[in-house]
Amino acid sequence: MKNYYFQDSPDFSIQIKWIVLSRVVFAILLIVSCLIFSSGENLSFFSQPFLSLYNIAAFILIISIVYLIWLNKFKKRLILAYLQTIADTFIVTAIIFVTGSYDSIFTFLYLVVIIYTSMLLLQKGSLIIATISSLQYGVLIEMEYYKVITPFLGQYYLSNTVDESHIIYRIIIVMVACFAVASLSGILALQLKGAKQDLKITQEHLKRVEKMAAMDEMISGIVHEIKNPLASLSGSIQLLREDAKPGSYEDKLMQIILRETNRLKNIVDDIRLFAKPRTDNAVEMKIADTIEETVELFLNDPERNKQINFNMNLDKNICIFIDPAHFTQILWNLLKNAAQSIKDRGEIKIYLKPSRNNRVYLTVKDTGIGITKKDFSHIFDPFYTTKPDGTGLGLSIIHRLVDTYNGMIDFESTPGKGTIFTILLNSTPVKRQTTKS
């Protein structure tokens, strides 16, 4: 399963911060360990390799500060993550070099870098770091063996003490270990991210479902009580308008009444849809096509901000069982909210990808103003809105429709940076077309 948007998640920045903090702790431990060991062996604090290890630790502390400044000032977090992990492989190689190269006990640090890279950049990133680590270690040992570089501690050259076959064997063992750890940790990290996301979506969705369940009966009763008087009012005004002179003061008042009556009718219809969505028209459909059609219609909407760019990454083979009108309404409302949150230039990204256990992820991400913390627990509440002309039913209806089809919805938002809405739906097997011979 590919993850197209993990670097856009606020959790990605948090993970980077934790890794930077861990790097700082490692540098401090390295300094303390050198001081303790040198004092225990009655060696000078500034003898080799301790002095070089102090310098490496100081370098780690300096670049950690640079990483934090980058994280707070710039948006290229994915580039930052790769630069950090690649730089760490060079730091590990430097530590191995100053502590004996072939005889160094710090080779395992490559595996540590690969493991936390898999947590940050998933399997692709961990395999890249495994390749870089293997190459660095192999080149270091070979250069010492063939006397291209002098051993740091001035010990004998490897060619004088170790057989070449042992050198090759050691390099192969390190390479195999790096790629094995990269593959396994990458798979586990991907599964862990998916499981954590599914769990978070499930927990938040169930809380909202329980909250809304108490409103169902009350809302259904209100809709029933309003519908009939509203229809009578609309019909009566239309009859009275037939006797009014076109363009007269009375006619204009009746037009206003009819317009507002129709607006009330639309609100009542939305409430009915929220209270009891019907699934009679549900069919199996490839939703990538519907997404493209809906986006095309949205692009032609005269109310749309023309400075918004759309970016789509869709799996064309995904099918779900849903009423096409319901799916279009879900996507349209999400696009509308995303567009309204972008004041000037911006971007809306739509991702459609498969998940585990025959599930589907539909994600709509915008670069708008985001959602404030105080609104987090209320955005799916019926009639809760922060817009002057809003009814507060858009996201409530989306939530109810998604829940009707045994799906779930969740969101992440950073004020001032944007919002990510994620919908988890059940997929259906793709029907293969067979040709008759």
Question: What is the count of β-strands?
Answer: 7
Give the mean pLDDT: 83
- Alpha-carbon Rg, integer: 31 Å
Q: What order do the helices and strands follow?
A: HHHHHHHEHEEHEEHEE
- How many helices does DSSP assign? 10
Q: How many domains, in number, for the residues?
A: 2
Give unreliable regions as ranges: 1-5, 432-437
What structural class do you assign from the helix and strand content? Answer: alpha+beta
Helix content: 55-70%
Write the layout of secondary structure elements.
Blueprint: H1 10-40, H2 50-73, H3 77-98, H4 108-145, H5 158-161, H6 164-243, H7 249-275, E1 283-286, H8 287-299, E2 308-314, E3 319-322, H9 324-341, E4 346-354, E5 359-366, H10 394-404, E6 408-414, E7 418-428
Parallel strand pairs: 2-4
Antiparallel strand pairs: 1-3, 3-7, 4-5, 5-7, 6-7
How would you sum up this structure, described in words?
This protein has 437 residues and is of the alpha+beta class. It folds into two domains: 6-203, no CATH class; 281-430, Heat Shock Protein 90 (2-Layer Sandwich), CATH 3.30.565. The chain has ten helices and seven strands. Strands 1, 2, 3, 4, 5, 6 and 7 form a seven-stranded mixed sheet that branches. Strand 4 (346-354) and strand 5 (359-366) form a beta hairpin. The longest helix has 80 residues, at 164-243. The protein is elongated, with a radius of gyration of 31 Å. The two termini are 36 Å apart. Residues 1-5 and 432-437 have low confidence and may be disordered.
